[in-house]
Design brief:
2 domains
Length: about 400
């Protein structure tokens, strides 16, 4: 009995863990995929990874779009696939309008009973008018676009466009509603209204779809869904899957911004000049210059010139006096002594001067050379005393002649 009683806490912990995992698995608010539905990075039945890889395998220029169209620099003839966006088109814009502000609207927009903003930003509208193709597939209200209640029946092709696309088999049929939807030409329709339509805008077009499920991994192989994807992608056009509306966002790097501003050739020229300069510096032309030798010669010439200047402008007795004072300062700095102790330490290295000239006369050259040698010898012994292992007694007293 005691054995089972000891295992009860472990059994309770396992049951609690199993109950927690079951609750998390059944909770609808907990996301079980790393990426959202209708994302090209989602490989489940509700993702678009197969659509992306299929177009890529066909040699198409396919790329994800992780920034707004206003900062994307899309090619003029590109194709943008925005499949079931989760965000409102103006969610990331703060117009901060007051009662006196006139909102910006496209010239083709008309007043209607629908609430909500226009489904496309001004930058998206301009890109479409310059030749772009915008494919928007929704299953809920999106700005001025909306869908009706699911109905019965089948989607029929009502306009002879896109050969090879004759039948669609979505799990749910919803009619397109809203101001923008009424401006389009119906391509596929249900008994309740259009399901797939096209709206011309300048050189480009907007394709509206109320059945985004046809692009999912689980339904892409049914009916003519794959053929519809190929027709929407076109031939020779760059295709972009809008991932910005699914929560994936990246910014433009410094090199990309400089390239967009036209600094690409300038940067390439700077790199080329740097390479040429590096190559030029590593190849010697003519005999090698000895910079160290020239530096030494200049230093020696400077010292010789300074010595000649001192010899010409200063008497020999004054030069010896200044030199002796410099030695006294060196001893004071090295030993830290003062007054009588410092004087005694100096006399250990340098004895008092033996010869002093008469007033108004200078030292003879022989006496000057002898006194100068004594001071130089004192400096040498002072430097020897600083070295590790030196003995003070060895430095005491003048060296024998």
């Amino acid at each position: 009995m005691s054995r089972w009683a000891g295992r009860l806490p472990w059994v309770a912990a396992v049951l609690f863990l199993a109950a927690a995992l079951a609750w998390l698995w059944r909770d609808a608010k907990v996301r079980h995929e790393a990426f959202r539905e209708y994302s090209i990075y989602n490989s489940s039945e509700k993702g678009l990874s197969i659509a992306y890889r299929y177009l890529e395998s066909k040699g198409r220029s396919v790329a994800p779009l992780a920034r707004p169209v206003a900062r994307a620099f899309l090619p003029a003839d590109g194709v943008l696939l925005r499949i079931r966006p989760e965000a409102d088109p103006f969610k990331f814009f703060d117009f901060d309008m007051d009662s006196k502000t006139v909102p910006m609207r496209p010239i083709h927009a008309v007043d209607g009973q629908e609430e909500g903003s226009y489904a496309f930003t001004p930058e998206e509208e301009e890109w479409v008018r310059n030749g772009g193709r915008f494919v928007l597939a929704i299953d809920h209200r999106y700005g001025s676009l909306d869908v009706g209640k699911p109905g019965n029946g089948a989607a029929r092709k009502v306009f002879p466009l896109w050969p090879g696309v004759a039948r669609l088999d979505p799990p749910t049929l919803r009619p397109l509603k809203g101001t923008t939807a009424r401006e389009g030409l119906s391509l596929f329709a249900s008994p309740d209204g259009p399901v797939l339509s096209r709206v011309r805008r300048g050189k480009g077009e907007i394709v509206l779809c109320s059945v985004p499920e046809v692009f999912q991994n689980g339904l892409l192989g049914k009916a003519d869904h794959l053929a519809l994807l190929e027709q929407l992608a076109g031939t020779g056009r760059a295709v972009f899957f809008d991932e910005y509306v699914h929560g994936i966002q990246t910014g433009a790097g410094a090199l990309e911004i400089l390239r967009r501003w036209g600094f690409g050739p300038f940067l390439a020229m700077i790199v080329l000049i740097g390479l040429v300069s590096f190559w030029r510096r590593r190849v010697r032309v003519g005999p090698e210059e000895d910079d160290a030798r020239e530096t030494r010669v200049e230093a020696v010439d400077f010292v010789d010139s300074l010595a000649l200047l001192y010899r010409r402008m200063m008497p020999r007795r004054h030069a010896l006096t200044l030199y002796a004072k410099a030695f006294e300062k060196a001893v004071a700095v090295q030993t830290g002594l003062r007054d009588a102790a410092l004087k005694a330490r100096i006399e250990e290295f340098l004895p008092p001067r033996r010869t002093r000239p008469a007033k108004g006369k200078d030292l003879p050259v022989q006496d000057f050379d002898r006194e100068l040698e004594l001071i130089n010898d004192a400096f040498r012994r002072l430097n020897d005393a600083k070295r590790p292992g030196s003995r003070r007694s060895a430095a005491a007293g003048p060296r024998p002649a």
